[in-house]
Amino acid sequence: MPKITEIFFDCDNTLVLSEELAFEACADLANEILEAWNISDRYTGDQLIKDFVGQNFRGMMGSLQKKYNFEIPADKLEGYVTKEEDKVIAKLEAKAQPCVGASEELEKLFAEKKYGLAVVSSSALRRVRASIKKVNQDKYFDEDKVFSAATSLPKPTSKPDPAIYLHALEKVGKTATETVAVEDSKSGALSAVRAGIPVIAYVGSYHGEETQKAMAQALTELGAKTVMYHWSEFPDRMADIENGDVTEVHSSL
């Protein structure tokens, strides 16, 4: 097996506890859009997370249009995308916190210099940069190694489309088998798996033991190689993949 030389990290709820803040900001705008098209359903941030976690706003709007059978004109959609970005970034800059233990592991990895480090996210580049800067993780990533499915590609997309991972591989000059991805969502894990990249599933940001166990199972079924419940387990989970010891899901619960 080729040696692992690069680690790709998802951002939202993998490095930075941003999903709840983002979906809170996003629910108001989603409801405004539903109201504009005379659709009576309304969302809370929690409901949006349940239905659309791992998707960026553009992907979410695609899913909403499909679900309720309506169409937002392209120019109007772009306006909504910018508005959502601004709302979310304002919340993140005010309140974002790192995922528990993530910064400590990044610090060790950065000092060790054994692996290249990159962020591969569905979210807009401006939002990803604001998130990692707010929690002081930006120092661990070169500016040209932060990738966004919403911004970095010629045609914007969202995970589970593997396009952003394939793009990141090309930019860092690695093959999928030289790389590991750390992902917390179904769409994120599926994106990396479809790109051929081994996945460490991180479930520590989910609330409650049962939810974490359910997500661990779901992500494993989608193809994640091993599961991490806390960032302190990261060296062991990397060892699982590097040693080919991925026949069982490790649990610290």
Overview of the structural elements:
The chain has 2 domains: 158 residues, Rossmann fold (3-Layer(aba) Sandwich); 77 residues. It is an alpha/beta fold and 253 residues long. The two termini are 30 Å apart. Helix 1 crosses helix 2 and helix 4 packs parallel to helix 6. It is globular. It contains 10 helices and 8 strands.
Quick recap of the structure?
The chain is an alpha/beta fold and 253 residues long. It has ten helices and eight strands. Helix 9 links the parallel strand 7 and strand 8.
Rounded to the nearest angstrom, the distance between the terminal CA atoms is 30 Å
Question: What's the pLDDT, averaged over the residues?
Answer: 93
What is the fold-level CATH name, i.e. the topology of the largest domain? Rossmann fold
CATH homology-level superfamily of the largest domain:
HAD superfamily/HAD-like
Please describe the biggest sheet, giving its number of strands, its sense, and whether it closes into a barrel: 6 strands, parallel
Structural class based on helices, strands and sheet pairing: alpha/beta
Work out the count of structural domains: 2
List the helices and strands in order. EEHHHHEHEHEHEHEHEH
Q: How many DSSP H or I helices?
A: 10
- Can you tell me the overall shape? globular
Proportion of residues in helical segments:
40-55%
- Strand fraction: 5-15%
The tally of strands reads: 8
Protein name: HAD superfamily hydrolase
GO molecular function: phosphatase activity
Pfam family, one: HAD_2
Organism: Penicillium olsonii
